[in-house]
Amino acid sequence: MPTPRSTRFLVEAAALPLLFAVACGGGSSSPTAPVATPMPSLVTVEIQDSAYSPKSVVVQPGDRVRWVFRGSLAGHTVTAEDGSFDSGFVFTQSGATYERVFGTDLAGRTITYKCNSHYFCCQMQGSVRVGSGAPPPPPGY
């Protein structure tokens, strides 16, 4: 027959795992995985003589667009119609680049741009839609 002292020991021993489970959160819930933040992407637009290719791109907020000169006709610019950016005349030789990050402040907007040298003669223009909900560019962009 168990003594009162041995009974107390058995009760305490049985309660210890329960106490440990409660103190440590208990349950069998699996650990919560951290939410992955998508890495910004790089979108490339080529400048080929008197055209941007592709003419219109869709990026997500935080993505970067890189314009790369691949043609032989120098003297191009990438100039936003709203004045928010302007590459200047950096496209002097094949391989020259200009980059721009389209931040979260531009989400839902469509930015149209043109080449200051070849817009009137050749309609050299393009657009960047920031986010899938951004409106389509006007005709020609």
Task: Explain what the structure shows.
The protein is α/β, with parallel strands linked by helices. It has a domain at about 40-130: Cupredoxins -  blue copper proteins (Immunoglobulin-like). Helix content is about 15%, strand content about 30%. The protein has helices at about 5-25, 120, and strands spanning about 40-50, 50-55, 55-60, 65-70, 80, 95-100, 110-115, 125-130. It has a four-stranded mixed sheet with strand order 2-1-4-6, with no helix packed on it. It has a four-stranded mixed sheet with strand order 3-8-7-5, with no helix packed on it. A hairpin with a 2-residue loop joins strand 1 (about 40-50) and strand 2 (about 50-55). The longest helix has 20 residues, at about 5-25. The relative contact order is 0.17.
CATH topology of the domain at 42-130: Immunoglobulin-like
Q: Indicate the structural class.
A: alpha/beta
Examine the secondary-structure arrangement and name the CATH architecture of the domain at 42-130. Sandwich
**At the fourth CATH level, what is the homologous superfamily of the domain at 42-130?**
Cupredoxins -  blue copper proteins
Largest sheet: 4 strands, mixed
What is the helical fraction, as a range of percent? 10-25%
List the helices and strands and how they pair.
Blueprint: H1 4-23, E1 42-48, E2 51-53, E3 56-59, E4 63-69, E5 79-80, E6 97-102, E7 110-114, H2 119-122, E8 125-130
Parallel strand pairs: 1-4, 3-8
Antiparallel strand pairs: 1-2, 4-6, 5-7, 7-8
